[in-house]
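batch job 7 of whatever, protein = Nucleotidyltransferase family protein
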Amino acid sequence: MHAVILAGGKGVRLRPYTTALPKPLVPIGDQHAILEIVLRQLATAGFTGCTIAIGHLGEIIRAYVGDGSQWGMAVDYATEESPLGTMGPLLTMRERLPESFLVMNGDVLTDLDYADVLGQHRVSGAPLTIATYARKVLIDFGVLTTDARKVVAFTEKPSMDYRVSMGVYGLTRSTLDGYTPGLPLGFDELVLDLLRIQNPPHAYEFDGYWLDIGRPDDYDRANAEFTTRKSLLLKGA
């Protein structure tokens, strides 16, 4: 099994932590970087190969991870010379990827079963599988429904339930056919294109632990929770 880790972003929302370090290498707990945790999880799940898409401060990631042998994996790299969006880096490495593979952001802290995501993707026959997580959004205002300038309904501070993308995907290589290498391609554009041609993605629903470390508050929470969740996140590693 092969995984692609997207680690080329500048981590702007996580500054000042990312001023000198790429976001996937910010430390969690006393001993581990986020990227190290992810690589150990992938190795434990049975992944033998990984391509890391690097850009901003990418040489630091390359120096830290090396060839991946310390985790029993074969790691190679693809360098973004300019920002290519979420899915754009895959186009530049397309020919060296297997027919189906895992794609994930390099700043995700979760106990998701990565092998099962890829396995379910293969079984589904879908062009893309999106790992999803339930989120409840609280609205701080009274919400009005209006019709012809008349209020016809009112709800005081409602909550809305959504399923959001976890930043982990199963992807079939042929799904990338027709897109031009070197041009930006976002996850949103790919999903909308698949919906437009009536070839919808498959949803992999997950309700375990997931934290997208995108902002300082998320990073502080990850560090606060890591000690109690370490055995869950690094089980068998």
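notes: The helical segments are 34-44, 58-65, 88-92, 114-124, 187-196, 216-233.
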